[in-house]
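Sample 3 of the quickstart, ligand glutamine:
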Amino acid sequence: MARIGVLALQGAFREHIRVLRRLGAKASEVRLPQHLAGLDGLILPGGESTTVSKLAADYQLFDPLRELAAGGLPLWGTCAGLILLACDAGDDLPLIGALDVRVKRNAFGSQVDSFEADLAVSVLTEPERSFRAVFIRAPLISYVGPDVKVLANLEDTNGIVAVQQGHLMGTAFHPELTDDDRFHRYFLSLAEG
Ligand code: GLN
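Result:
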């Protein structure tokens, strides 16, 4: 049974924990550096990236998170969590800086706060069945480094919304808010190695 931590400083951490437990993983809340011990994987949930970054600094989580990312721990950032995991968010917000992507925060503007879209994602089980993705004030990935694999694009604009760089994963949307748990299962397969 994989032991998956979920960063629980702010945002949609309870929803991730619920999905993980339903899938049989051992899910725990991470608020302090000592909560990171013994994990097989870690999810950085969506929320408000400025708030999460500030709290992560206050709780001295940045150094241990950077070490775990560099050491190969599977990490998955969703929405604000993707921003936190990225190398570049276009401003001076402190980031983990492990995933070689540039993100544009609130890329869809205030006119379009949230929307849903069907994505084709070939790495998921039943790849012929599209994944209904929920975007909430979502970032867009505007650059990916050479080691980053694009997992999903938005159909109309071709914007990049899901990526993987080895043990690191980022999605601009919120898979924990739908019943489709295929992204969680995919992440568990990385964590179970
Ligand atoms: N726009 C938010 C931010 O910049 C992210 C929104 C989300 O996680 N749903 O932090």
